[in-house]
Amino acid sequence: MATYYVKTTGNDTTGDGSEGNPYASLGKAMTATVASGTIYIKSGTYNLTTTTQNANAGPVLFKSAYTVRVLGYETTAGDGCPTGDRPVVHANGNAPTYMIQLDGTGSVNHEIHHVKIDGDNQNTDGIRDALNANNIYNLSVDCVVTQCDGTNAYYGVRCVGCAAEDNDANGFDSVGICVYCRAVGNTGYGFLLNNYQSAIHCVAVDNGSYGIRVAYGGLIVNCTSHSNGGVGIFGFQTNNLVANSIATGNTTYEYDLDFWQTGTNNADYGAAARSTLYTNTVDIEQVTLSGLPYVNAPTNMELSNSADAVLCQAAGIGFPDGLKPDLGAMPLGSTTDELAAAIWGYSNRTES
């Protein structure tokens, strides 16, 4: 396996990608990749200077022929950015179609860990798959996408511990599965899930459209949806399961489940009532709260010590202890690497 290093002190002309003589951009490291391997990118800001993909300081297209893992780090390669000081790939006034594109197949599975994408309010997408909504082979771990004003912050990649914040776009679109992810302040949907896709332990707050929407055969489990511009949690078609979740203060409905769906052990509060149940939709043990159960919505969505919050905790609704949906303290660093490894067998390991 090949290993390359990228640092702000590197050089794309004289560097060779070694730790002592690194490159200065992800684009250069990607074009230099001649086999499957790992690219370590150190904390700092990496400004785009062009919209040409894989130019030295352009948007990054992962090579389709190799499995490539990009790992951000703070001090030591592989440290997982333990304080959250991720390397930042910044659009710098440029508007490429995307900032990062992963081109994976059934035998080639790319990963990107601990990287922040700042679109600089340009018409660009953040992290996306090159293929389509139902062809999901790639993984994003502990990444942040912000100020991307194209169509989606994330598209077509599985996500663990990721954030979509303040994008003039959808937060997570057709991402397969999101675990411990947050969508905050995006103008579109928080989570726009396709058929058989899932959101587990996710938070959608202050998005312009629906908080969490799933099409067909999906799971929404232990999620929180608050103060979004449409429905809080929406089962769009049939055969979805919504369980152990909280919807509060959303504009249209807290929950809207269409035909042949099941909602079980969920809680809601707000002016938007739960929608009228449709034919063959099951609604079990729904809990109507008397107030917001959070510590300090919308900044800290952790359950408080109120009677309503205690009721949710006792019923297993919302987040478990140890991984609270405080929007500033979601799982990060090595915690999300370990979580991704537990779910899919991926790990933040050193390649040699």
What do these coordinates show?
This protein has 352 residues and is mainly beta. It folds into two domains: 186 residues, no CATH class; 114 residues, no CATH class. Helices cover 8% and strands 34% of the residues. The strands form four sheets. Strands 1-2-5-8-11-14-17-20-23-26-29-31 form a twelve-stranded parallel beta sheet. The chain is elongated.
Task: Outline the secondary-structure elements.
Elements: E1 2-6, H1 26-32, E2 37-42, E3 45-47, E4 60-61, E5 68-73, E6 88-90, E7 98-102, E8 111-113, E9 116-122, E10 125-129, E11 139-141, E12 144-148, E13 152-155, E14 158-160, E15 163-165, E16 170-173, E17 177-179, E18 182-184, E19 191-193, E20 198-200, E21 203-205, E22 212-214, E23 219-221, E24 224-226, E25 233-235, E26 241-243, E27 246-248, E28 255-257, E29 262-264, E30 267-269, E31 282-284, E32 287-288, E33 294-296, E34 300-303, H2 307-315, H3 334-344
Parallel strand pairs: 1-2, 2-5, 3-6, 4-7, 5-8, 6-9, 7-10, 8-11, 9-12, 10-13, 11-14, 12-15, 13-16, 14-17, 15-18, 16-19, 17-20, 18-21, 19-22, 20-23, 21-24, 22-25, 23-26, 24-27, 25-28, 26-29, 27-30, 29-31, 30-32
Antiparallel strand pairs: 33-34
Q: Key terms for this structure?
A:
352 residues; mainly beta; twelve-stranded parallel beta sheet; eleven-stranded parallel beta sheet; 34 strands; 8% helix; elongated; disordered C terminus
Strand content: 25-35%
> What is the mean predicted local confidence, pLDDT?
86
Number of strands: 34
- Strand-pairing-aware structural class: mainly beta
